[in-house]
Write a structure and sequence with these properties.
The structure is a single chain. By secondary structure, this protein is α/β, with parallel strands linked by helices. It has two domains: about 5-45 and about 185-260, 3-Layer(aba) Sandwich (Rossmann fold); about 90-185, HAD superfamily/HAD-like (Rossmann fold, 3-Layer(aba) Sandwich). Helices cover about 35% and strands about 20% of the residues. The strands form four sheets. It has a six-stranded parallel β-sheet with strand order 5-4-1-13-14-15, with helices on both faces. Strands 7-6-8-9-12 form a five-stranded parallel β-sheet, sandwiched between helices. Strands 2-3 form a two-stranded antiparallel sheet.
Length: about 270
């Protein structure tokens, strides 16, 4: 499928549009191209800490204009999924949440009640404020029958000082303590991409997914039936690609290759 036949775009954020809060070459121009052509798109991220409004502001600080309704996080995907699981005769669902505003806001807006008393679900997302007390409460609630949900499987996350333990690492601790494996909504589960497509009212056959990771973006895009594009501006290398038994439909150096007109960096004034 050539770019002119694609009617909808999904794109990862880190390593595709930004790197260390700096816009990557051609990212601003590609977003403007989609806006100008009135093409539906969503920027996806497994990070559940921030709300879509927060991320829109952070991207704007990097020089990228992305309205909050064009951002789809693992928190939003998780809230959408759980809302579909609640029995309509039951009324509002309930959850005990280990996470930040991005996750609690999404669940509240989906109609969930936050509680520590007999919740339907224990939902674990990204946070920089994990506590032994909160994890202990999660373990006890799961042992008592609450269903275990995790926003994303990432075991570590980046920081200027080095890697940080992330959602997947805390989920593994809870699994070890309870013997219960969670249902993980975010990438590489194609569920996240399907929820994004449903949010846009788009069909996978006419949609492309741009990502920088073979083990999340590309495999999930492939399993969701989309056209997949791997960019080399993030974590992937030619050597790492050869380790996987599947291939993206296209490999490019950066998103600037998707522009209708050749991209040239703006010259800096002396």
């Amino acid at each position: 499928m050539s770019p002119e036949n694609i009617e909808c775009w999904l794109t990862d954020m880190d390593g595709v549009l930004v790197r260390e809060q700096e816009a990557l070459p051609g990212a601003a121009e590609l977003l403007e191209q989609w806006r100008r052509q009135d093409l539906p798109y969503l920027v996806l991220t497994n990070n559940s800490i921030y709300t879509a409004r927060d991320l829109s502001a952070r991207l704007r600080h990097s020089g990228l204009v992305v309205p909050e309704n064009r951002i789809w996080t693992s928190a939003l995907a998780t809230a959408t999924f759980l809302a579909q699981q609640v029995d309509v005769d039951q009324g509002s669902g309930s959850a005990y949440v280990v996470g930040e505003a991005g996750l609690t806001t999404a669940l509240h807006e989906a109609g969930f009640i936050m509680t520590e008393t007999d919740p339907d679900y224990v939902v674990v997302g990204e946070t920089r404020n994990y506590s032994f007390e909160a994890i202990t409460k999660a373990v006890r609630l799961i042992n008592a029958g609450a269903r275990f949900i995790v926003t994303n499987p990432d075991a570590t996350g980046p920081s200027p000082e080095g890697v940080l333990p992330a959602t997947g690492a805390i989920a593994a601790l809870i699994t070890k303590a309870t013997g219960s494996d969670p249902y993980v909504v975010g990438k590489p589960n194609p569920m996240m991409f399907r929820s994004a497509l449903n949010h846009l009212g788009a069909h996978s056959m006419q949609t492309a997914m741009i990502g920088d990771r073979m083990d999340t973006d590309i495999v999930a895009g492939m399993e969701a039936g989309m056209h997949t594009i791997l960019v080399m501006s993030g974590v992937s290398s030619q050597a790492s690609i050869s380790h996987y038994p599947f291939r993206p439909h296209r490999i490019i150096d950066g998103v600037y290759e998707l522009l209708d007109e050749p991209w040239e960096p703006e010259s800096e004034e002396a």
